[in-house]
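Quick question: what would this complex look like in 3D?
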Amino acid sequence: MTFEHWLRTWSYLPTLLQGLSTNLAILGALLSLGFFVGILIAILELYAPLPLRLLGAGYSWVFRSIPEILLLLLVWLGPARFGLSISPFWAAVVALGLRSSAYQAEIFRGALQSIPSGQTLAARALGLSPFGTIRYVLLPQALRLSLAGWGNEFAVVLKDTTLAYAIGVVEVLQKARFISSREFPLTFPAYVTVALLFLFLTYAGLFLLGKLEKRLRIPGLEARR
Amino acid sequence: MRSRVVCLILLALAFGVLGIGAEKFIVGTDATWPPFEWVSAKGHMLGFDLDVMRMIAILEGYEIEIQNLAFDAIIPAVTLGKVDIGASGFTITEERAQVVDFSSPYWTSDQTVLVRADSGLTLEAALSPGRKLGAQRGTTGAFWVEDNLIAKGVAVELVLYETYPEAIMDLLAGRLDAVIQDQAPSEQAVRQYAGKLVIAGIIKTYEEFGFLVAKGDPKGILPRIERGMKKLKETGAWDNLVSAYFGNPLEVIEAAWEACIDVLLVQKDPVAYAACLAQKVQELSQK
């Protein structure tokens, strides 16, 4: 591995960045999917009647149990058995999104449970409906409390997007493989470059989340944390 | 005015119907295996297999969409109907033939044993007990080591890699004694690591490559591939393609491909395209 190899790898940077934009697109879609489904599952697990509560717990169990790469293949190949077609990109979003929703559900569940039960009683006594209690009292606080854990989930799923190569999504790692197969000596420099890109992305993402956490902080509530 | 609008609508409808009517098959390939399939510096997917697929599609009047996939995933994708054709330098094996249908062979390849130049290993020495051998997962090189060495009690250690270059890296780092792989990629490795790697020897496996489709060929693709290959061979296009793709540096092939591909994709003339490619490769490699 010489300096020249690094220079040559550098010339592939636009290709790698193009691949990285696919990772970011998957990331954005899967986090959004995971966020909304995750909140729903957390609420089901905590406040729904027993059958639904079991459903939520089962969901969380299933999607935290199946290895991600297997989940990807199942979501991508599975619908074909019923004559349905899903593109590799959306299969990746759905598979990784469902998996993430299960983890996010646990983050939100922990945060919701950490809010003193007196608040629920007070809200109900003031005439808020059960839904209103969740919507206006519990969730706004819980989501703030979730941010730290959520940042961790962000860092995890960001890297998971590279798994999508297995079902044919041309993301950044796949681009690196293309480079490496074309010029064998660039294999290592290309992989290191991808690693550096992820170091940067994780840093940038966590930095922004940290800012968000500060901005959303409620004075007076901080003492509790 | 109105009649014009009606005409336009009719035209659009006609095209719409044609669009639906035009058959489209998805071709699955792992584009990390030059010169059979790879991605050029400019990001185009090219290679012998892919050009054959494109040429046959034009000759037989269907469209193709090339889908990149991990090598291991192609056969499952074909069996489940996610992909219609597998074109990725697949050796025809009995095991594979149990789950998919193959075209007639289009290429014959042997396995090569690659070693470090300074190791001085001969073919026999490289494959003797105690050696550490590398191969790409799911490839016939790996199967050969399993069937002809390990199953027969030769105590070699087989290490499997996701991609071929990763095995080469470990070979160069001294963590492997030899890497077993098809001829063309081995030659590329020797070219690109000049002086560091040599081919210790060739294992005559007489493997035949085939294109593959789902078991029973439900979409009737194989007869069309056969017909297309026959036409390519009769017109000399096949030989031109072979002379362009094999034994030449990848940059040269890429430049020639860029220069000629419109003949195939725009003018839809496979024979002229193959001639153009062969000629351009020759011109460029003389420079």
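Answer marked as accepted. The radius of gyration of chain A is 21 Å.
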